[in-house]
TrEMBL record:
Gene Ontology biological-process annotations: proteolysis
Listed EC numbers: 3.4.21.-
Lineage: Bacteria, Pseudomonadati, Bacteroidota, Sphingobacteriia, Sphingobacteriales
Enzyme class, broadest EC rank: hydrolase
Ranges annotated as spanning the membrane: 147-172, 203-225, 232-252, 258-276, 288-306, 312-331, 343-364
Protein name: Rhomboid family intramembrane serine protease
Membrane topology: Multi-pass membrane protein
Recorded GO MF terms: peptidase activity
Domain Peptidase S54 rhomboid: start-end pairs: 193-330
Keyword Transmembrane: yes
Location(s) in or outside the cell: Membrane
Length: 482
């Protein structure tokens, strides 16, 4: 049997009303099931009585609705629900005049620690995101309520890929040059003033498989995360994480040509992980999502560590940005009615992430790393020119060959001087080691010229044991440089 009765608020605030209601439940010896800022649910059975009813006190604008439902289903339960409601109201009125304002403040602080999160509060309307896909696979590509920017991003990535392929870019494994032309994040160009590559690189992909994997990952996380965040917070997190991932990729790698949406997508997974570590998402969903997303992140980071061609620096950068953004969003998500928080959190997130990204970008642009990468192009030009001159003498054995050999020796000697100067810069250990390998390469090339010059009649394709040994060493050095 269910009994309901209205209890007037009079001049009490919601905080005062809630504290007095909770104290009333304790005064009557009832067992609290759960509490929130919307009310309390308790059981009249405290472990000593056979009769059990569920008491619900739900706050509204004018007071509260006090309800009792019999749940023990015994023959002698008749009338006990009504008696329980009357007992609650009588005790509430009695305690109302006995609890001071100071006690209300102190007790509210204690009770607040046990409030259930909004998504688990049965006293409030169900505000959990709901997904309704009736169009099969095509539904993942159509904007809908709670799923707006995710399909737009997916379609945009696919369209850009198709345009690239139609323009002549390889379907499966496009080269670095073509990707750079389409806006990839390339160290020299990006740090040379083309900052927009930090963004454009997030929308182009290294082939069909790369696009397919990122499309799946984006659809999965967007389907669950965008309804929680809303349109503005979702697209803001995506773009900020993508930019930060691109910046971290530049900072980590000595020289890179990188592209793809994975940094931005890792950012969304980072936002999700941040929220899953709080009580914002209901516990029934939290464990499963945390397991799936945690496995995705760990697997991809570990896989990227062992497989070449995967930019784990961008993945980690996006993940870090996402975690920071997720925690920054949390206060606004907990209080969706606060207009100031609703707009303040995205603005602060944009400000902080863009400021940090700008500082890193400017420092990198003015660093020796960029100067080195620009100057090293001169070395590659010297090497290419010297090899071209020598290969043009394959069928010669006379003076022209001798002049070509002298040109090669001079070119690679200049290369040694150039690398020696570049090695004085403030560079990473990897670049210093690479410099030593380049110098070793130049010396081997000079040694080759000297050997051929000793017996020019044999031409540059000499197969003497000493020449074969040097060529083998050159091959090993070139492998090391790769």
């Amino acid at each position: 049997m269910k009994i309901e009765q209205h209890l007037s608020k009079n001049e009490l605030t919601d905080k005062q009303f809630l504290v007095i209601a909770l104290e009333t439940v304790k005064y009557l010896g009832w067992r609290i099931r759960f509490i929130s800022d919307a009310g309390v649910i308790a059981y009249t059975d405290n472990g000593e009585h056979s009769w059990n009813g569920e008491i619900t006190v739900k706050l509204n604008e004018s007071g509260a609705m006090v309800q009792c439902v019999t749940i023990s289903n015994l023959l002698n339960d008749y009338g006990r629900s009504e008696a329980a409601v009357h007992a609650f109201i009588f005790s509430f009125e009695k305690l109302k005049s006995e609890i001071s304002e100071d006690e209300v403040r102190e007790k509210y602080k204690i009770y607040k620690k046990d409030f259930v999160p909004a998504y688990e509060d049965t006293l409030k309307p169900d505000i959990r995101p709901k997904f309704h896909f009736f169009g099969g696979l095509l539904s993942f590509f159509k904007p809908a309520k709670g799923y707006f920017f995710t399909p737009i991003l997916i379609v945009l990535n696919i369209l850009i890929y198709l345009i690239m392929v139609c323009s002549g870019v390889a379907v499966f494994e496009p080269d670095a040059a073509s990707m750079t032309t389409w806006g990839a994040n390339a160290t020299i160009y990006t740090l040379g003033g083309q900052w927009w590559r930090l963004i454009t690189s997030c929308f182009i992909h290294f082939g069909f498989i790369h696009l397919l994997l990122n499309t799946y990952a984006l659809a999965f996380v967007g389907l669950f995360l965008e309804p929680f965040l809303g349109r503005v917070k979702f697209i803001t997190a995506y773009l900020l994480a993508g930019i930060f991932a691109s910046v971290i990729s530049l900072w980590w790698h000595d020289n890179t040509v990188s592209a793809g949406a994975s940094g931005a997508i890792f950012g969304l997974y980072g936002v999700f992980l941040a929220l899953l570590s709080t009580n914002h998402i209901e516990s029934s969903m939290r464990k499963g999502l945390l397991t799936n997303i945690g496995l995705f992140v760990v697997y991809n980071l570990v896989f990227g560590s062992f497989k070449g061609g995967i930019d784990n620096a961008a993945h980690l950068g996006g993940l870090l940005a996402g975690l920071m953004i997720g925690y920054a969003y949390y206060p606004a998500l907990q209080k969706p009615g606060e207009v100031l928080l609703k707009w303040l959190t995205p603005i602060l997130s944009v400000t902080v992430v863009m400021l940090v990204s700008a500082v890193i970008y400017v420092n990198l642009a003015n660093s020796d790393k960029v100067t080195y990468q620009k100057q090293i192009q001169e070395f590659y030009k010297i090497d290419t020119d010297a090899l071209k001159v020598l290969r043009g003498q394959e069928n010669n054995t006379g003076e022209e060959l001798v002049r070509a050999l002298q040109h090669g020796k001079s070119a690679w000697s200049n290369g040694i001087e150039l690398i020696t100067e570049l090695d004085k810069m403030n560079l990473s250990n990897r670049l210093h080691l690479r410099n030593q390998t380049l110098i070793k390469y130049c010396r081997l090339r000079i040694k080759t010229c000297e050997l051929i010059a000793q017996n020019p009649e044999q031409g540059i394709n000499s197969y003497s044991p000493q020449m074969q040994q040097i060529n083998t060493r050159i091959g090993k050095v070139l492998d090391d440089l790769k």
